[in-house]
Every structure is written in C-alpha cells, then in structure tokens.
Amino acid sequence: MSNEPNLVIAGDNDLASETARHAISAGMADPVYLWRTTDDPLVSQAPVVILADPPERLGFARMALDAGNQVVSLPITDADQQIDDAVTAGRCSLVSRLHGLPTMSRLAADCRSGSYGRRYGVFAAHRIPVNFASELEDALFNLLVYVASLIDSPLVRVSATTSELGGQTTAAWFIIARFADDTIATIEVTAILPDSDQPNGELVVEVTGSDAVLRAEPERQSVMVNGSNGLRKFPWYAEPPEFLLAQALTMLQDKRVESHVSAMRLLQRSGDAAVSDQAVSTLP
Amino acid sequence: MTKLRAGLIGTGTIAHSAHLPAMRYLRHDIELVAVADIRAEAAEAAVHEYGAETWYSDYRELLERDDIDFVDICTPEFLHCEQVVAAAKAGKHILCEKPMAASVAEADEMIKAARDAGVMLMIGHSRRFTDRYRNTWAAIAEGQIGNVQLVRENERRPVAMYSALDLNTGYWTPDGERPWIADPEYTRGAALTNAVHEMDLARWFAGSDADSVQAESRIAGENVEVADFLSYTISFKNGAIGAAEIVNNLPRAYPYFHMLEIFGDKGYAKAQDPAQSPYEIWRESGMSFPANFDQLLHIDNAYIREIGWFVRAIQFDAPPPLDPWDARQALALSLAAVKSSESGRRVYLSEMEPDGGAA
Ligand SMILES: NC(=O)c1ccc[n+]([C@@H]2O[C@H](COP(=O)([O-])OP(=O)(O)OC[C@H]3O[C@@H](n4cnc5c(N)ncnc54)[C@H](O)[C@@H]3O)[C@@H](O)[C@H]2O)c1
Fold first, then answer.
1. If you measure from the C-alpha of residue B39 to the centroid of ligand 1, how many angstroms do you get, rounded to a whole number?
2. In terms of domains, do B334 and B213 share one?
3. pLDDT one digit per residue (tens) for chain B, 359 residues
4. What does DSSP assign to residue B344?
5. Quick one: DSSP state of residue B292?
6. Nearest to B247 among A120, A177, A188 (CB)
7. Which among A123, A210, A279 is the nearest to B345, CB-wise?
8. Separation CA A223–CA B34 (nearest Å)
9. Per-residue DSSP letters for A50-96?
10. For the domain that residue B192 is a member of, what is the CATH number?
11. Number of separate domains in chain A
C-alpha cells in the first residue's frame, strides 16, 4: 500500500482534526493528510475537503485548485472568479455543516432519490439566540448551501429582506429563491430566540412535493433541561463528522454541478438582493 | 332584544359548513328568512336543512324584500362588490365573506356604498374570532412578548382543498368542470384563498400597516390554473416582518398544517398544527391525529362569534367588531403579493392605492 494520501482535510480546528481522525478509524479514507494552514505545502493530488474557519477557506481552495486537486468546501462567500469557474466546471463543490447532522443528511439523501415526486418548494428556517447574532451569517451561509443541495435546478431569481429586529446590526434574513424548475425556496435565518435558549437554536427544513412532504427538525430528539441556566437541549447526536465526510465524499463522486452553481449564486446574490432591496435575477 | 331577520346569498361550501350552522345556533337572535343562489340544489338544501322560508335564484329578489335586516354574502370575491353595493342600496346591513373584493378600488366602493346608505358593513375574517388567535393577540396586547418583530405563518393543505370532497354542495363550477377557486377567470389563487387570512393576522399581531412585500408564487398541482403556492416577506411600517409559505395542493394524506410563530423582543408565542397533536396513532398505513383537541385552524365557535357579534353591533347601534378598512388593507397586501410574484420585484403598498399612491 502506498503512503500517498487519498484524502486531504484542510483546516486547523476541531472539526477538521476530528473528521480526519474519523476518516481513518472508520476506514473511509486512509491515509489522510491533515493540511493545517496554507503555509504548509499541499503534498497530494488527492481530493481536498476544506473544513477550515470561514476566512481561511478561500486561500485553501485557491491553492488546491491551482495544484489541480478536486475540492469540496464549507461555504465560501467571497466573490472570486477562480472559484466561480471551478464550481461551474465541476471541480469545486460546496458542503454545509448541516450535512453533518444525521437527520439533515438523511433528508438530503431522500431528496437526491426524488422521494417526493414533483418538487414544489423548500422551507428552511434556522433561529438562534439573540446573543449569538455574530454567528448569524455563518448560519445563513450553511443553510443556503444546504438548501441548494436539495434542489438540482439553476437559480433564477432571489429576493432578500433583512432586519435588525430592533437592534443595531442585521439580526434576520428572509430570502425567497426561485429555481428554473419553479421550485420556490423560502429561507429564514434569525437571531431571535431568547438568550436562555440553546446556542444551536432551532432548525427546521421542509420539502413539499406532489407525492410527499418531508420535514426535518433535528432538535426534536433531545433531552430538555429547563433549569437555572435556562432552557438547554442536548440533542441525541453529537454532530458526528461521519455524516459531513460522507456527504463530501458523495459530492466528489456524484457531481451535481447544477446545485453547486446554485449554492454559489445563492451565496453571492442574496447579499446583492438585500442591498438593492429588490429581487435579483441570477441567470447569465 | 328583537330578532334580526337575515338573508344569505351564496349557499355553497362556507355557507353550509359554517354560516348556516352558526345562524341556527344563534336562532334566538337571528331568523333566517331567505337564501339566494344560482344553483337551485344548493339553495334548496339550505331551505330544507336550515329552515329558511324561501329561496331565490336571483339575489336581487331577496334584496327587494323589506323584511330583511341584514344579508350574509358567501359568494366568491369577484361578486362581492356588486352584491354589497346592491345590498347597501337596498338598506340592508351586510356581513360579507373574505377576501373583501377582487380589487382595492372595489373595496373602496363597498365601504363608500355602506357609508352612504348608513348600513353596517363587516368582512368575515373569521380567524379574528377564534379563541387561539384572540388569546395570542391578547398576550401581545398585554406586552407579554414585548414589541413584535416577526410573525411567521406557514399554512399547507392537501389537494382536497380544490375539490371540497367532504362537503354536501361542492364548489361552484362555472364552466361545469373546474371549481371557480382553481380558475384564473374568477380568482387569484392562494393569495386570496388563504394568504389574505394570514396577512390580516400578521397586520393585527404586528400592530402596523405594511410598507412593502416581496413574493414568489407558482402553480404546483395539476388540477389548478391559479397559483397554489405563495411565499412572501412583508416589511411592516413599524419595522416588524411578516413571512409565510402557503402551499395548498399537497398529497391527499397530508394534514391541514399550520405554523404560527410570533417573536417579540421579550419572548415569543408559538403554535403548530398538527405536529404537536396531543394524541397520535401510528399504523401500517401511516400516522393519524384522531383528536386534535383544539386545532389552530379549527373553526368551532369562530363563526358563531363573528355573526353573533355582528348582530349585537346592529342591535346596539355600535361599530362593527371588525372595521372593513382592515379587510381592505389585508386585500391590498394580498394583491401586492400577487403583483410582486408576477413582476419579480418588491411592491410598495402605496402602489396598490386606486390613485396609484398619489394621495
Ligand atoms: N372565512 C373563511 O375561512 C372562508 C373559508 C372558505 C371560503 N371562504 C370564502 O367564502 C366565499 C365562498 O367560498 P366557498 O368556498 O363557499 O365557494 P363555493 O363555490 O362552495 O360557494 C359559492 C356559492 O356561490 C354561489 N353563487 C355563484 N354566483 C352567484 C350569484 N350570482 N348569486 C348567488 N349565488 C351565487 C355558487 O352557486 C355557490 O353555491 C369566498 O369568498 C371564499 O374565499 C371563506
């Protein structure tokens, strides 16, 4: 067996190192190269899964694409022609942290198999406590990428309404996205729960179709403690890296370019729509 | 207190399922004198089951009677203006189903006709009269959740919505085939069928008029030619947001689903039908909710209250429990959402004014 890694995991955080460890121990990939910073060389031609913190993702992605590697990354929001071209060419795809939740990964798999018949719409809401407002954008980007992964059709139009909800900074995003096959996605991310609520907040994703309605609300399976620390929910899962990695590996094989391009456009154009206060057309 | 003598126009689905039973319950206050419907069988069923003296196929004959104090109009919205104006001219007080009309100009004409004739006009936004919504509103009014920042209302219904299968009359099918509720010649789809309820509630809970709305809509099912799917975000003048996803054509086994969430700066109020059913049964064939004891959408006493309070207001010469202006504003909001979804842009409520917002 050669020592050439068959997977590269990029990032210097717990998620990256746990995922690398899991990839090896579960036999999903071995050997794995944990590529901690862009100061380190990229020593392999193997696919790169970027789990780095948001500001570092673009640097990793550029370096990997320059070296000719295939890339799967957590949301990259910077407008960048190289990434744009790579996503359109199927060399780079986007994965959401939400794919790491077992319920959400199951919903995504059921969507891929088309178990709802003709698709009508997707409703997705993620609410977090007010004092976690600084994490709003990250939650938004992950939800946008997750929603796009459920829809294999080009994004046509997106409108966005933002609100400070009485505070100083943006605390709420309301996005309505229309896709070429007429799927309408309704996406809401708000820092609106009382501070006593748990940091993960509440997540619900529903897919409506002619044959079925799928509804995922991961927090429903949790132990609830309402005590001196306020309401705390301990979900029955620990965000196992297994699911995130499995999704990344699926994306490397089953390239749904359409949905990755949509994910990228959603990330890029939702902001434009919010600034212009008008719906933005996203077709070339 | 003297009984009021009533005439009912349009003896279809909502009349048979809600208005006529409520009038029977209120029989100590109301005497149902006559009904009118262009479908003889629907009108005759009302006479037979609810004891009206007589029926007419032309509502104008009903209005000619001078022994009727008020009319209850339960026809589709494109007929509301004509029938309300005629009833006002005939000197009858008027309760009229939602949505108020097919256009804002028509709504204004109705308000003016009632004012000129000195009769009461109320639009039956029935959800304002259910316990759940009234309790929610009272909690907001008492300041329990602080200033309202977001009203999220998602509403979904199964395909049966467009066939009225369970009801004895069935929808009116003007062309003999497709119900008016699915036909763009007669209505505008989900915006007027149910979003207008949600918009009315959102205005009520937010305590503000809307500034603008952004929306997308589509035809999802194969049995309709009007949008049966609508998603919208309302920006209210006081900064609150109202948002909803309305889907009306889901698989037959799908329950009536309703999610109401109101977030304020001090707390929130939430309710959901039927996922939080107090009693659920799982079988091989799937899940059922045999006893949703208090469904959010369940009408129970809403129409008794709606009609009963309307009648009391007439008897005591008091203002109607629901000002027609509110219904007019909810209609304007619904039509603005239609316009936004058709044009792909944000629509300001000022654009919906008949004078184009010049005033
Ligand atoms: N408040 C609520 O929650 C609620 C619920 C359902 C319906 N509605 C409203 O009630 C109204 C009627 O809806 P529906 O579901 O009962 O429809 P429907 O088709 O079942 O009933 C309409 C009736 O009007 C009759 N009609 C048609 N033209 C007429 C005319 N010129 N004169 C007299 N009668 C005429 C039809 O024959 C039919 O019997 C609509 O505005 C609808 O939006 C309100």
1. 12
2. yes
3. 789 999 999 999 999 989 999 999 899 999 999 999 999 999 999 999 999 999 999 999 999 999 999 999 999 999 999 999 999 999 999 999 999 999 999 999 999 999 999 999 999 999 999 877 888 898 899 888 899 999 999 999 988 788 754 445 688 999 888 899 999 999 999 999 999 999 999 999 999 999 999 999 999 998 899 999 999 999 999 999 999 999 999 988 887 888 889 999 888 888 877 655 555 555 555 555 544 444 555 566 889 999 999 999 999 999 999 999 999 999 999 999 999 999 999 999 999 999 875 54
4. T
5. -
6. A120
7. A279
8. 59
9. E---HHHHHHHHHHHHHTT--EEES---S--HHHHHHHHTTSEEE--
10. 3.30.360.10
11. 2
| DSSP strand pairing (B93-97 vs B121-124) | parallel
Spans in chain A with pLDDT lower than 70: 1-2, 223-240, 284
Relative to the CA of B79, which ligand 1 atom is closest? 31
Assign A233 to helix, strand or coil: strand
CA B38 to CA A130: how far, in whole Å?
56
Q: What is the pLDDT of residues B147-206, one digit of tens each?
A: 999 999 999 998 878 875 444 568 899 988 889 999 999 999 999 999 999 999 999 999
Encoded tokens for B113: 């006709």
Burial class (CB within 10 angstroms; exposed 0-12, middle 13-18, buried 19+) of B21: middle
Indicate if A261 and A151 belong to the same structural domain: yes
Question: Given CA atoms A224, A228, A230, A234 in this order, what sign does their dihedral have?
Answer: negative
Ligand 1 pocket mutation pick from B49, B62, B74 by most atoms within 8 angstroms of CB: B74
B36 lines ligand 1 (CB under 6 A): yes
ipTM: 0.77
Q: Tell whether B238 is covered by a domain.
A: yes
Q: Does A138 lie in the same domain as A59?
A: no
Is the beta carbon of B39 within 6 A of some atom in ligand 1?
A: yes
**Token pair of B349, please?**
């409520």
Calpha distance A183→B274 (Å, rounded) = 25
B225-257 pLDDT tens trace:
999 999 999 999 999 999 999 999 998 888 788
**Hey, is B298 helix, strand or coil?**
coil
**B174 in the same domain as B117:** no
**Confidence (pTM):** 0.87
**Encoding tokens for residue A235?**
């979900």
Contact A190 B263 (CB under 8 A): yes
Contact by Cβ (8 Å): B187, B235? no
Report the run of H or E that residue B59 belongs to, with start and end.
Answer: helix B59-64
User: Of A77, A73, A65, nearest to A94 (Cα)?
Assistant: A73
Look at chain B and count its residues.
359
- Which residue range(s) make up the domain with A56? 7-73
